Amino acid sequence: MSSNGRIRILSVDNHPLMREGIATLINGQPDMQLVAQASNGREAVEYFCECKPDITLMDLRLPDMSGTDVMLAIREKCFEARIIIFTSYEGDFEIQRALAAGARSYTFKNMPPGDIVDVIRKVWAGKKCIPPAVAMQLVEHLSDEPLTEREIDVLRRVSAGNSNKIIAADLALSEQTVKGHLRTIFSKLGANDRTHAVTIALHRGLIHV
């Protein structure tokens, strides 16, 4: 916390308009102060080490690396870093990965400004804050059987438009094995076909384009 008693915040987002909006929101609070803004992962780590903020607001999609990977890099330098994921991506897989990596909260950019600053205050107070909208995303798929890394590999290649034959050659598998993986993927995701499976996986954050 700064000498004037304000919570010192680092904002990490590659969209200038979003950074401007965050700056306006933060600096409009009597107990908060924006100390730095980063537009990519490299800057985020650099500014964190330089400014040592109390709270870091981290977007998931950055031009050079994912927000989760940036968070891991920061926590290697400061394990107690309080990082809040601030993103438009609502997939349950993204949420689980970020929380497992050490995020103190996961917030959506479409949340009301008052809710966002409330999360910042709670995290600064030492709490791990999961907003209701985020909790709903997690609960929806709580009982789902997760995809294996191999199944995600297959699905990622399906999303790129590859045939079973090409996927089999790429992963050193037989075509029958690839077909077996696809049947399992469809079952786990509740998908009707390849296109449906890719759509669901993109929505949940299992794969990215």
Give a structural overview:
It is a single chain. By secondary structure, this protein is an alpha/beta fold. The protein has two domains: 7-140, 3-Layer(aba) Sandwich (Rossmann fold); 149-204, Orthogonal Bundle (Arc Repressor Mutant, subunit A), CATH 1.10.10.10. It is 52% helix and 12% strand. It is built from ten helices and five strands, in the order βαβαβαβαβαααααα. The protein has a five-stranded parallel beta sheet, sandwiched between helices. Helix 1 (16-27) links the parallel strand 1 and strand 2 (32-38). The termini are far apart. The mean pLDDT is 92.
Outline the secondary-structure elements:
Layout: E1 7-12, H1 16-27, E2 32-38, H2 41-51, E3 55-58, H3 67-77, E4 83-87, H4 92-100, E5 105-108, H5 113-124, H6 132-140, H7 149-159, H8 164-171, H9 175-189, H10 194-204
Parallel strand pairs: 1-2, 1-3, 3-4, 4-5
Helix pairs in contact: 2-3, 4-6, 7-9, 7-10, 8-9, 9-10
